[in-house]
Specification:
By secondary structure, the chain is of the alpha+beta class. Helix content is 47%, strand content 11%. The strands form two sheets. It has a five-stranded antiparallel beta sheet with strand order 6-5-4-3-7, with no helix packed on it. Helix 1 packs antiparallel against helix 2, helix 7 runs antiparallel to helix 8 and helix 8 packs antiparallel against helix 9. The protein starts with a helix and ends with a helix.
Amino acid sequence: MATLKENLRLWDEGVAACDRGEFRTALEKFTGIQDPSAKILFNIGTVQMALGQVQPAAKSFSSTLEKDEHLSVAYFQRGLANFKCGRDQEGLRDFQESYQRLRRNALIDYKQLGLRYKLCACEVLYNTALVHFKLGQTAQCREMLLEAQKIKIEPRHNVIDTALECLDRHQTFQPIEMPSNVLFRPATSIIQNLEKKDYLGKAKVVSSITDRDDFSGFEPLRRPKESQTKSLDAALRPEGTPHRVVRDHVPTSAEELEVRVGNMVFVAAQEEGWCSVSFSNKIGLVPAVCLEELEDKRGKGFLERLGDLFHWSGKKAGL
């Protein structure tokens, strides 16, 4: 069974073929869609009309209306197909039904449904008048044309005036037909999303605390290269001598830092009982009596132990 993606692709390819005038190719694409919607069935009927297959087209429009009985434009198209098949009474009923579905509106714009066409009430009345003329009902024909003349909208509707002149000369006139490339089209945004997209892209290193680090991806943390050890050590080591906080300090000025017992700070300078320290990405003053100097163990062995720890953690997490 075809997927929704395959059906959408066939729909888009069928419309493109029709735009190129390749109606047989378009018909193959549309008929290849499984469980077609009313829109696809309408497209099939329109392409069949372009190929001169009026009887199959009438059946396609009937199938369209089985899916969507409120589609006035489908009644219009089926009426035209029935008229061309010589089924005048059926054509007359279809045009009358199409007019009723307009619900006294001057037109219906199907653009929001994907059909770039405005079905005008005057066009439906015009074709209705033509069927009346063919049936020999000239009075009804004139009545429909005069009504259509009152509500014509565009310059192309001047054919209504021409039809009235033909009626006075007892001559027939040609029906109004929809262009052969007026089809229900899939939304452009949907078609564009059919192709796979790489929303994440390829990862790359933008910034690193180590020199010449071009690794990106997901894998266990790696032990720094020997050439990187010195720069990594310098990056990890804050300036100053490590001290442990042995007494809480609550600042009384903006220059002081708040520290608690057990915090680790780094003392850069000491003067008159106050220490300039770095703590939690901040620099400020802390009383010297609150601090106790520690031995700095962040030497070469520290980085090795840190790398071993990360390597073990990665294995335990299954990375």
